[in-house]
Write a structure and sequence with these properties.
With 370 residues, this protein is an alpha/beta fold. It contains 15 helices and ten strands.
């Protein structure tokens, strides 16, 4: 048995998040359903073909066979991207339990076809609908069956992550509409508050339940960044999101002071990173290198913050060469993970346009035993 295999994945993650250098950098990778199927065939996996990138209903066979260190289990609106039975059966549209309407949009790559879902209807587009709107119940026992099975089967060895992403902003604008939500921030803050509180309360209840069940980390957050900067002003973020996130983090750490909290936002959010640290954030995800410099962030905040991601999913992984992918992994290990504080991961789900050669170059640069 190699030295790497002698260390449990959960201990590897714990060391890195304690700013210690483990035997190798922890690894977490998620995939779109289409890429997961390609990978399953490439690895000759014969188990049940279920895959949600957020960790909803998965078998975890792919993750464990690759030598991943974190396993995800998801409760919340983000599961609406994949979990609807009518869509999974081949339908091209559906309405989720929140009342948000979706449709399937196909795409084609050199490695085969796939589809994404996009939102086409918002249940609170008419503000009068708020008076009668009833969100789903976040404490239904059936929501936590998978988490219970995962914790029971794998917590002894793996770092278990409870996923409650799209925590406030993304679910709120799915309910209201993105443009109208932005208008509400400026023209009707009390209405914005009322709608933001719907997903905030739901995902906080879910996260509390997951922490009580024993997950090691909660993955929260919303996309509030664009390629060049914030989608909303830092002042608006402080007004609408910072107090809610501060409450979110403090509530979870009051239940278990050892639980870690990760915050996800695509894009460039450098202007609010110090304030995320201020309210108790442990881990920043995904650190897109096309938007923010991982090395610079490590120099500026590496003593206070850990990083999860940093492998370029926009350019290098899908369109680079295997040598370029390997070189980027090795650079991240040296510049960001040299003294721990890093979980290596692509900055988004691995897409259908990714060559398997590039995928394996990434995996084997992180985990030579894979």
């Amino acid at each position: 048995m190699s030295e790497a295999a002698s260390i449990r994945p959960r201990d590897r993650v714990r060391m890195s998040l304690s700013h210690q250098k483990p035997d190798r950098c922890p690894m977490q990778i998620s995939f779109t359903p289409e890429f997961a199927q390609r990978l399953r065939e490439d690895m000759h996996q014969t188990g049940r073909a279920v895959h949600n990138p957020h960790g909803g209903g998965n078998t975890y066979e792919l993750e464990r066979a690759l030598g991943q260190d974190l396993l995800l289990t998801s409760v919340g609106w983000a599961n609406s991207y994949y979990a609807n039975e009518a869509y999974a059966a081949g339908g091209d549209s559906y309405v989720d339990e929140w009342g948000v309407a979706w449709r399937s949009v196909p795409y084609q790559t050199r490695f085969g076809a796939g589809s994404y879902t996009e939102i086409v209807g918002h249940p609170l587009a008419d503000r009068r609908s708020l008076e009668s709107y009833s969100p789903p119940d976040p404490l239904r026992p059936e929501l936590y069956g998978e988490a219970a099975r995962l914790i029971d089967a794998h917590k002894a060895d793996y770092w278990i992550v409870g996923v409650t992403v799209t925590t406030i902003f993304e679910t709120a604008w799915a309910l209201r509409g993105l443009e109208q939500t932005m208008i509400d921030f400026a023209e009707d803050p009390p209405l914005a508050d009322a709608i933001l509180d719907i997903p905030f309360r739901y995902h906080l209840a879910a996260a509390k339940r997951l922490v009580e069940m024993g997950v090691d980390m909660i993955w929260t957050g919303d996309d509030v960044g664009s390629q060049r900067g914030m989608m909303i002003s830092p002042a608006a973020w402080r007004r609408f999101f910072k107090p809610r996130m501060a409450t979110f983090i403090a509530t979870l750490k009051a239940i278990n002071p050892e639980v870690k909290v990760a915050y996800h936002s695509d894009g460039n959010i450098e202007r609010i990173i110090p304030e995320l640290i201020e309210i108790g954030l442990d881990v920043l995800n995904p650190v897109q290198p096309a938007c923010m410099d991982p090395t610079k962030l490590k120099r500026s905040y590496g003593d206070k913050l850990c990083f999860w991601g940093t492998i370029d999913e926009q350019h290098t992984l899908p369109f680079g060469s295997p040598a370029q992918v390997r070189a980027q992994v090795l650079e991240r290990l040296e510049t960001v993970g040299g003294d721990g504080g890093l979980i290596l991961s692509p900055t988004h789900h691995v897409q259908q346009d990714t060559p398997l050669e590039n995928f394996w170059a990434m995996v084997r640069a992180i985990n030579p035993d894979a």
